Amino acid sequence: MLGSLRFRLPAMFLLGIALAVLVAALISVRFFQNYTQARGVDELRAESAGIVQLYAQQAGRETVPVSSLVNALGGDQLFWLPAYKGVTLLQGITDLPEGATSIDVRKLKGTATINVTIAHKKYLAVVRPLRLGQNNLFGALVVAKPTSQLRSRTILLIERLTLAFVGAVIVAGLFGLYLSRRIAEPLRKLSRAADEVAAGHYGVEVPEPRGRDEISHLSVRFSDMAAKLAESEQLSRNFLMSVSHELRTPLTAIRGHVSALQEGVIDDPDMREASLEVIGEEAMRLERLVGDVLDLAKLDAHRFTVLQEEVDMQQLSERAYAAFGEEARRRGIDYRLDVRASPVILTDGDRVLQIIVNLLSNAFRWTPEGGRIELGLTSENGSVEVAVADTGPGITPEERERIFRPFWSRDGGGTGLGLAIARELALALGGQISLDTEPGRGSRFVLLLPTT
User: Fold this and answer.
1) How far apart are CA 90 and CA 98, in angstroms?
2) Is residue 417 a part of any domain in this protein?
3) DSSP 302
4) How far, in Å, are 202, 205, 352 from residue 208 at the CA level?
5) Residue 318: phi, psi to the nearest 5?
6) Among 252, 267, 300, residue at a domain's last position
7) pLDDT of amino acid 341
8) Which of 113-127, 289-303, 339-353 has the weakest average pLDDT?
9) Residue 358 belongs to what domain range?
10) How crowded is residue 451: how many other Cβ atoms within 10 Å of its Cβ?
């Protein structure tokens, strides 16, 4: 519980708020203390000025009513600091104790602020000289305020700040809990979904994105990842089934003919020759299948070597075209070769031939009997274009990208490697394969290769 994100997020948020409020409170108290002391000094100076002025107005009387002076202080203390020993002008006012201050009144030109302790009680005081006439200095009036009054103001501020601090912590805690639930709950669901995916269950429920923040982005990407893993697993399963089928068919044929030859069932020389031809063809079929799987593995691992040689594209196209001539005749397909250029380029001829053969094999697979297939060769703008067009069923927009994925087949038949290998080989040769198709109107695959 203490190590969970749901606890740590609000705890860190609350700790940050508490530290920020505490620092702000300390700074506020310090400023308030300075302000309170400055304000107290101003008050004492104003009171001392008033007392001196009031005394000067009443100085000609036989006795000066001290009570009127004290009442004017509003609760502050009044002391007398004589300039000369024995000089006392105000009867009833306590002299400032000796040693309470080291100020020499005779050298005092203006007011002075001092801190004094009287009867174990601390005061903040202002000393103002008392003169009658221009130069008749008799002493100084000391107006003092207990520092406890100043501290009481600070304590009142601290009490109010404490209440504000507690309220802020409570509000911040509630807000932190809300944020932690909002952030941690989707993450918990993503964590559970990740556990399911790790266990091989890809049909997990991912929390719905709520906005455009990082968690929403993570949810979308996690959902895409789970979908792609599920698709990848399905493709792998389809591949295993397809490869198993593709391997079993030639192996069954080979085993049957070998058994017949071993048991002497086939005595006729012509039939023996035909059986050997079948065995050879099926062995080549197995070799092509294994070669396709190895080529794809090399391409995925980027361990594919490309040769550089001069290749006559017209001869290579004619060679690929001739490989399917018999199948076209047998199925009644209108099979054409349209060569409009004879470029010679520097590339890997065997791999280019493999690409064209794969495109033609795909076209013959999907073109119905009596249909049309055309192999075209052109060259312009520094590139060679080999196009394979057919009159098959066409490809839907949803399937345009899937057909180039390994192990994916539209009808579940075959290995789904031909077009995937063709595109990867084209990229390895510095070219690309594009597709122009429309459902019901056939497809046109174009191999584009640079001339240099």
Assistant:
1) 18
2) yes
3) T
4) 16, 9, 47
5) -65, -35
6) 300
7) 92
8) 289-303
9) 309-450
10) 15
